[in-house]
Design a protein that fits this description.
Helices cover 25% and strands 29% of the residues. It is an alpha+beta fold and 134 residues long. It has a single domain, classed as 3-Layer(aba) Sandwich (Trna Endonuclease, Chain: A, domain 1). It is globular, with a radius of gyration of 16 Å. It starts with a strand and ends with a helix. The relative contact order is 0.16.
Length: 134
């Protein structure tokens, strides 16, 4: 996927490591579970401790947070964005050449909207909000 991996060596901060590449830094928590999770699973209800821990990380807002889940019988990780207000399973990411094995292309084609995450714009907006608070 073109990422570099940096392992978290501080056990007091609960995430497994950082992955980074040009224009993206992601805090990742890995979780292995015994049983498969359904395609319509609400991840913050299934794994509330992990989601809350990622949201509470003392990292800047431009550092994305992801929960990667692997079940006993699958050979691929399912990746979830952990955003401040919601979560979203990553179906595919062309920049990383990632494609979720549970990706439902027919559903995606019917989707009423698309989501693009403008990372530089997001960081700029957060910086402006910090300046307003000061």
């Amino acid at each position: 996927m073109g990422f570099h991996w940096l392992v978290n060596t501080d056990p007091a901060i609960s995430f497994d490591g950082l992955i980074y590449r040009t224009a993206a830094v992601v805090a990742v928590m890995l979780k292995k579970v015994r049983y498969a999770i359904s395609d319509d699973c609400i991840i913050e209800q299934k794994f509330p401790d992990e989601v809350n821990a990622l949201r509470a990380l003392p990292l800047p807002g431009y550092v994305l947070r992801e929960l990667w889940i692997r079940t006993q019988n699958e050979r691929a990780w399912r990746r979830f964005y952990i955003l401040p207000e919601t979560t979203a399973e990553i179906e595919f990411n062309t920049a990383e050449n990632y494609r979720n094995t549970h990706f439902r292309e027919k559903d995606w084609e019917k989707a009423p909207y698309r989501l693009d995450i403008p990372l530089p714009l997001l960081a700029k907006n957060q910086a402006e909000k910090r300046d307003e608070v000061k």
